[in-house]
Design brief:
With 282 residues, this protein is mostly helical. The protein has a single domain, classed as MetI-like fold. 73% of the residues lie in helices and 0% in strands. It contains ten helices and no strands. It is elongated. The protein starts with a helix and ends in an 8-residue tail after the last helix. Its main location: membrane. Keywords: Cell membrane, Membrane, Transmembrane, Transmembrane helix, Transport. This is ABC transporter permease.
Length: 282
């Protein structure tokens, strides 16, 4: 086990995407972790006298129209993005993977029903789902999580089903059946371990998409609500101040772009490392 991990680690270090994406992702997670216990200034502290200050030793990225420290807001916004993405992607994995595994194991009419239900869910993207949910329950982070999570369920269900169907045709699965193992036991002991690399890569991709979706929903006023900071909300508040204080839009925009880029690079690197068919000679 340790030798296999060491080999994966060595291959990962030879992948530029894996290294660069991993560093960016690690910095993003570390920023959110630090923000849980410390920020340079209280994120809800409003001091009108220091509004629109530039970059200085006291305020590394300046302040906004309310005198709030931008570094503190970006750090707190990272916490919100991580929390929403973890729960939303976890919801997709927790429901979608079992559904896909069941569909691949049973097939027949059950497979057809589950896949048609997935097609129906695909017809409602995260943004449209959020609009419908907030129309009924009001805007908020919880509703954003539900909307993004609902969108993730069919993604993981379809991916799990497709990958599992390939594994079900392998000879060692036939041997497991001959040994008296049922579909559930085979799925848990053989199918899921053999498709775990595909699922791990997809998790990183959906994590990036969840962060982007949360920022978009907050920008539209459907996601995280004040006084909780959000990168999307910061962009929304800065759009009328572009000529007066462009940094208010530049820094949260860069935070979103770099985080999504880092996760995508990391996901591509993981794909090359974990999937032997896609490994490139280096």
């Amino acid at each position: 086990m340790s030798e296999g991990f060491a080999e994966i680690w060595r291959m990962g270090l030879r992948s530029r995407g894996f290294v660069i994406g991993g560093v960016i992702t690690l910095l993003f997670v570390a920023l959110a972790a630090v923000a849980l216990v410390w920020t340079p200034y209280p994120v809800e502290e409003i001091v009108v006298a220091r509004r629109f200050q530039g970059i200085s030793s006291a305020h590394w990225l300046g302040t906004d129209q309310f005198g709030r420290d931008l570094v503190s807001l970006l750090m707190a916004g990272a916490v919100n993005s991580v929390a929403v993405a973890i729960v939303a992607v976890g919801l997709g994995v927790g429901i979608g993977v079992p559904l896909g595994a069941i569909a691949a194991a049973r097939q027949g009419w059950l497979d057809e029903i589950l896949m048609r239900a997935n097609d129906f869910a695909f017809a409602f993207p995260a943004l449209l789902s959020a609009v419908m949910i907030t129309a009924l329950a009001g805007p908020g982070a919880i509703n954003s999580i539900i909307a993004i999570g609902i969108f993730n369920i069919p993604v993981f269900a379809r991916l799990t089903r497709g990958a599992a169907l390939v594994v079900w045709k392998r000879e060692f699965i036939l041997a497991a059946r001959v040994a008296g193992k049922g579909p559930v036991r085979i799925s848990i002991e053989h199918i899921l371990p053999n498709i775990s690399s595909v699922l791990i890569v997809q998790v990183t991709i959906q994590f990036a998409l969840a962060i982007l979706a949360e920022a978009g929903l907050s920008y539209l006023g459907l996601g995280t609500q004040p006084p909780q900071p959000s990168w999307g909300k910061m962009l929304n508040e800065a759009q009328t101040l572009m000529f007066l204080a462009p940094q208010l839009a530049i820094f949260p925009g860069l935070a979103i772009a770099l985080t999504v880029l880092g996760l995508n690079l990391f996901g591509d690197g993981l794909r090359d490392v974990l999937d032997p068919r896609l490994r490139r000679e280096r």
